[in-house]
Amino acid sequence: MKPLTGFELLRPPTLVGALEMMSTLDDAMPIAGGTDVVPAFRDLGPKPVHLIDLGLIEELNGIEEEDDKILIGPTTTHSQILTSKLVEEAAPALHDAARWIGSVQIRNRGTVGGNLCNASPAADSAPPLLVHGAEAHICSLEEGHWIQLQELFKGPKMTVLEKNEILGGIRFPWVKGAGSSFQRIGRRKGFTLSVVNAAVYAERDGDRLREVRIALGSVAPTPIRAPAVENKIRGMRMSEDLIEEAATASIAVVKPIDDVRGTAEYRRDMVGVLVKRAMREAWRRAGGEL
Ligand SMILES: Cc1cc2nc3c(=O)[nH]c(=O)nc-3n(C[C@H](O)[C@H](O)[C@H](O)COP(=O)(O)OP(=O)(O)OC[C@H]3O[C@@H](n4cnc5c(N)ncnc54)[C@H](O)[C@@H]3O)c2cc1C
To answer: Model-level pTM?
Structure first.
């Protein structure tokens, strides 16, 4: 295979070093695992850019618990997420999603930060993190700040990150006893992007849904939450009828498009199917019975 040329790869060992490069160099772009960037370069041809490899920056990698919050560094790979007991317990939906992403090779290189910053409407890490109430840390040479993850996404392949900014971390609360689930449909079982995906988070109060959150991917220009559906079913007694109601209401809030991976009509139908599956599993993982 012909090597890619036309860019310079820089490998700063510190976050400050990376941020200095981002703010001083023209056409600088961060790269983590490269599993989105490199195929795009191969398809479109590389632009003359400085690629700032974040892979050597230790503080950007890893999974920690701090004050009942889970913190995930942006260069944490999907394989790290998949093998993390902490994620499996605190955010089962994110753990589910990591299992489905690409192949072993893609999961070993691809990162959660790259998945979010690539801003595909189909990004599999996005719905789980959205339902867990995740926030994103925006770093620049000035003081960093946290935003709701939903605010990171501006449109297909577009984030709110400025040229001199890097996603420095993701955090979400660890609510003991809560359950969550991620479900997806692709054109094949593995090694393919989702045609539709969905995540549900549930907290239980006896047989009622004390808290419920629903997020959907590949049905709008960005991954979305479904607050209208959540508000309708929050506090209600869990039942198959309620699951049916949530699925029907979810179909009504999405605006999918036809593309090579599926038609809008198919996606709408599959939203209903996936919301039902995810609701049942999130409820079961929260200790509920149906
Ligand atoms: C064969 C194949 C199968 C795939 N299957 C799936 C799948 O099933 N599900 C799925 O969701 N995705 C899939 N992908 C897409 C891709 O692997 C993931 O999106 C992956 O998580 C991207 O991470 P990365 O580290 O490789 O990102 P990179 O390619 O390094 O970067 C992606 C984008 O994010 C930016 N970026 C990266 N890190 C940061 C940061 N910290 N701050 C700011 N910007 C940053 C880069 O500038 C770039 O714009 C697949 C890709 C391939 C090639």
So the answer is: 0.97
